[in-house]
Amino acid sequence: MDATAFILNPMARSGRARTRLEAVRSFARERLPKARLFATEAPGHASLLAQEAGRAGVRRLFSVGGDGTFNEVVNGVMALPPEARPAVGLVSAGTGRDFFRHLAEIFTFPKDDSWILEAKEVPADVGRAELGYANGPVVRYYMNIADAGISGEVVRRVAGSRKRLGSLEYLKSTLQAVWSYRAPRVKIRILETGGSTWEKDMVLLIAVAANSRYFGGGMCIAPGAEIDDGKFFLMTAERVGYFSLLRRLPSLYAKKKLKHPRIHYAEGTRMEIVSYTGDLPIGLDGEFLRAPRVSFELVPRALRILVPAANTRPFSPA
Q1: Which H or E run includes 177?
Q2: Residue 76: φ, ψ to 5°
Q3: pTM here?
Q4: Residue 135 needs a FRET pair 20 to 30 A away by CA distance; which of 39, 121, 185, 315 works?
Q5: E-only strand ranges, the chain
Q6: Which of 50, 71, 72 is nearest to 61 (CA)?
Q7: Tens digit of each residue's pLDDT (9 = 90 or more) over 80-131
Q8: In this structure, is the dihedral angle defined by the CA atoms of residues 147, 317, 64 and 77, taken in order, positive or negative?
């Protein structure tokens, strides 16, 4: 097998990204004729394909799809021993494009796919989510953002939609979730950088452990996040009046922190959330989950990601 492979999701954007996927196939066949191309057949298949590729000796693995496909690829790669993990790249063809949106602020992506030929590797942090169930914990990884609360409800709605509105589907689902969300009572504990601990009981609107900046199709929930700095950008918000919340939504698109006495920001390496009132809705890079408790922990520089050789600024120093 060639050292380069592509994992393509034919159902990206509910099947409406086929033209984009065909362009990538043509590019690979013309410019990288020895590269292998794999197509996903069902949810979770990208993780299995990524593991198989790594075991077969692939050293450069490109995910062609949305944030959810990339999330599956990352989970497949993280299931491998560190020495067997290929570097992963994102060829964006999805709905929200949130992780790609942050990458495009750092690196210069050409309009075509030519960057793939000479892509360079840079180290990146990975988030580790451990969901606590009665029959034992389940571990999932993520590159972008993990959240619990109303944002998990938004992820559920978007996942069940036909995504005809593109990134606006997230805004539509957010406005719908504002009226239907039933806020749970939780305990949150944060391990901050420097070793101090912050904890609080609250009626939860949202909790975010961000390795990157954007979610929800362009909402900048974590303006200070960097994907290689060894820490999360953390945010918690207690339940607030819904009209108060709606008035503050434009700040997210303006890349500003939300200002409210019930909103807390921090930097840290771990967040734990325990619900007193049933399962929490949880979102992991487009994946919807539920669990009565969850922890998010940073794994520093656990993966190498593939990006254009020309960049607008250097990554953070080691």
Answers
A1: helix 168-180
A2: -65, -45
A3: 0.88
A4: 185
A5: 4-8, 36-39, 60-65, 87-92, 120-132, 138-142, 145-149, 185-192, 197-210, 214-215, 219-220, 232-238, 263-275, 280-284, 287-291, 293-307
A6: 50
A7: 999 999 999 999 886 668 899 999 999 999 888 999 999 999 999 999 999 9
A8: negative
Question: Considering only CA atoms, which of 99, 87, 92 is closest in space to residue 113?
Answer: 92
Tell me how far apart the alpha carbons of residues 177 and 99 are, in angstroms, rounded to a whole number: 23
Q: Which domains does the chain have, with CATH numbers?
A: 4-94 (3.40.50.10330), 127-300 (2.60.200.40)
CA angle 269, 227, 167 (to 5 degrees): 110
279: left (phi over 0), alpha (psi -120 to 50) or beta: beta
* Strand partners for 267: 233
Local confidence band at 159 (pLDDT 50, 70, 90 cut-offs): low
- The angle formed by the CA atoms of residues 236, 150 and 251, to the nearest 5 degrees, is 65
User: Is the pLDDT confidence value at 196 over 80?
Assistant: yes
Task: Choose among 282, 266, 283: nearest CA to 224.
Answer: 266
Percent of all residues in the chain with a pLDDT value above 90, rounded to a whole number? 63
Q: Return d(Cα 259, Cα 262) in angstroms, integer.
A: 9
Of 131, 278, 280, nearest to 207 (Cα)?
280
The pair phi, psi for residue 222, each rounded to 5°, is -135, 75
